[in-house]
Amino acid sequence: MRLQRLAETDRAAVSFVLDGTPVAALEGDSLLTAILAHDGYLRVSEFGDGLRAGFCLMGACQDCWVNVEGGGRVRACTTPLTGGMRVSRRIVQP
Amino acid sequence: MSILIIGAGPAGTRAAEVLVSAGLRPIVIDEAPENGGRIYQRQPAGFRRDPRTLYGFEAAKARAIHDVFDQLRPSIDFRPRTLAWNLRQGVIDTICDGKASAVPFAQTILCTGAMDRAVPLPGWTLPGVFTLGGSQIALKAQGCAIGAKVAFLGTGPLLYLVAYQYARAGAQVTAVLDTTPFAVKAAQAFGLMRGGATFAKGLYYIAWLRARGIRIAEGVTPMAIEGSDRVELVSWRDARGTNHEAAVDAVAIGFGLKPEAQLADLAGVPFDFDPVQHNWVPRKDPSGRTSVGGVFLAGDGGGIRGADLAEAAGARAAWAVLAARGLAADARAVARLDATLAAGASFRAALERAFPFPAKLAADMADETILCRCEVITAGELRAAANEALAMLSPSEVNRAKALTRVGMGRCQGRVCGAAAAEVLAAALSCPAEQVGRLRGQPPVKPIPILPAEAA
């Protein structure tokens, strides 16, 4: 699975860093959109049952947490992407 | 003393409008960066689709709500990006951009909305499975489909609406799989017709999908979502008992809506089990007033009634707030709102009966299915705890089961699994679902950063 961009694709490009690799996204993307349009997961379940990519997209399920350098753990679905953001999907012990 | 409106969707907007017209300046808090709520969510700056593309038949309503809110802005204290995470006696605790603030209130109108009701299925935690509402948000707020080949699975009006919106936007809709048999919906035809335009739109979406050859199956039993580290396949059994599968890379699931009523819970508002919508609903009078002084409810957070009635309920609750402050009400406006709310109730009941929550699907889920996706607790673990309780003849309800198994103890606080967990537990204890109760809300209602004590 990857999110498919169907509309609003003529926005300005921005880039961010995902797990150490530069990734292109679009201005106005949420962090969730920017990541999932590129690669189909957001986090690794801490209980060993595999990958997760969020669920509700409205800030309720808390299943889309990623780590942002300098910002700590954030909900990817409600966090706007900003250019140059450095994001990690690895498990970080609290 | 302040009036606090929590939620800037249709209910909160109309509540603010009435209060401002009475010369008051309410504080309006919303977790989102913009007003509109989920249904009339505004797209980010720089997006250019017109309201017709974004909201379809609801474009005029969305525009009206946005226009009213924009006109109200100078007259209200709007606090976007602000989470109301606790409600104490006369105080709502909020956090915005990491900054905490305790906001006292004389009256609050909780317009906290709803979220999708889920039934856990094998494979539902795989990347590529999203809620119906979430799938709609991806399209509306971000211009994205959740995958290249999408199945829609569940029941309720949103199932057909979102499938239609996806197909119209150019997404490949592989199948629409409805757990409700056609006959159940047909039996409600008379009641549904009272919905007039709303009913007609629903029929239109279904006809539109069928006309484009999109596979629609009714009365299905979902079997599994499969894949190694992402969705690859969805399988189901049709009404005749034949198994089917379809290759997809995303599945949107949803079985109706449930109120986001955590703040009402923290306020101490009593809840009742509504057998028609199969939800626990905070108790309120027809004006939205609760038994807790100063606490009023409007919109889907006070029981699912849909966006149109949310507008009426928001305005009605604002009049009730004015009455509580000893201010005169416009009797004709109030009578009109009461009539609208009463008239809408019978259509809503027919709609809920036409798309019932598949309680048996939840109750029958396989032992190895992950029930609580936060804590990764299976249905079997909950059943084992229930059987232990039975053996010891000790009374059991969901909060006790939560303490024993951690079901619903994760960071979503049981929002996602609570309804299904109650069905699993009730079936194991051979009692009706309402008898095992509901998971109580706890502050903070959503995770917040740990703050130094002096900041709180």
UniProtKB/TrEMBL annotation, chain A:
Coiled coil: none annotated. Keywords: Oxidoreductase. GO terms for molecular function: iron-sulfur cluster binding; oxidoreductase activity. This is (2Fe-2S)-binding protein.
